[in-house]
What does this fold into?
Amino acid sequence: MPTIAAMQRVQGVVARQKNAPVELTTVLVPDPGPGEAVVRVQTCGVCHTDLHYREGGINDDFPFLLGHEAAGIVETVGDGVINVEPGDFVILNWRAVCGQCRACLRGRPWYCFNTHNAAQKMTLEDGTPLAPALGIGAFIEKTLVHSGQCTKVDPKASPAAAGLLGCGVMAGLGAAINTGAVTRGDTVAVFGCGGVGDAAIAGARMAGARTVIGVDIDDRKLETAKRIGATHTVNSKNADPVEAIRAITDGFGVDVAIEAVGNPTTYEQAFYARDLAGVVVLVGVPTPDMRLDLPLLDVFGRGGALKSSWYGDCLPSRDFPVLIDLYLQGRLDLDAFVSETIGLGDVEAAFDKMHRGEVLRSVVAL
It folds into this structure.
């Protein structure tokens, strides 16, 4: 453990206990050890996952250093780091693949079962170790990560937009493109038009889907979904979404139904809203108490595939640079997901806005 004198003092957003308001406080960041990097954070999106940490919905390893959807500049690196160097503009990712587990060795590194995090801990001034959200902790001026969590991309990209690929936007894009394998001419329905769902809509459109249906209970979110790329919308508070989707698709249902809520009711709607042999993708994160009850005969008789999408089944080293190139070419509007930029001291208020459905993403700018 490095001495306190050898550690940098920076400001970070910490959740000390379950459901308590977050606080901006001093955090000690050690110099990077072997395989590690210190990144000067430029932006970090306020994601539902951070709120889940604050509410104790992930685990109870308080105190948490929140924030994970970030972009920044590599400041220093430890011994053995070869993938990035000081001055590189990077997006942080929470799936730094190991290259050695059974998934990696079978050529499926996006499923890596042994991803890397920094070995050292950032701490409070009294020495209390912090648990960084998703192994990153980026509501902070500088953060310590494993070098594999740094993906170098074109520095011409806006940090506020680029950082969103670090979690929610990548999860949605990947749910459509990677997991759902949406292709030219497909019909797609997305249940839940928040940040992840709208990213799935953008991904389906980018992949060539001819019909993209956004489903939500909030008309404000449905209007945003149209701006992102939905060809049709359904307010499921006012109409049966399964029947509405079938009416839009000549009575058949969609080829790919993406559930971006994480709720048994919306999952069942997605299950029945797809065509025979269609695909259901679950990218919304359920809570531990949720259960699903479907007739097994329907699971068999409708055919197709029921899939879960972890982080959009992305491989950051493969996907981030490509998506940033598409953004810079004007073919992927990441800026549309940035509702506002805020300061480090505004995270608690941003949680409230997110809960009320007023924003796609509030982005902390440092």
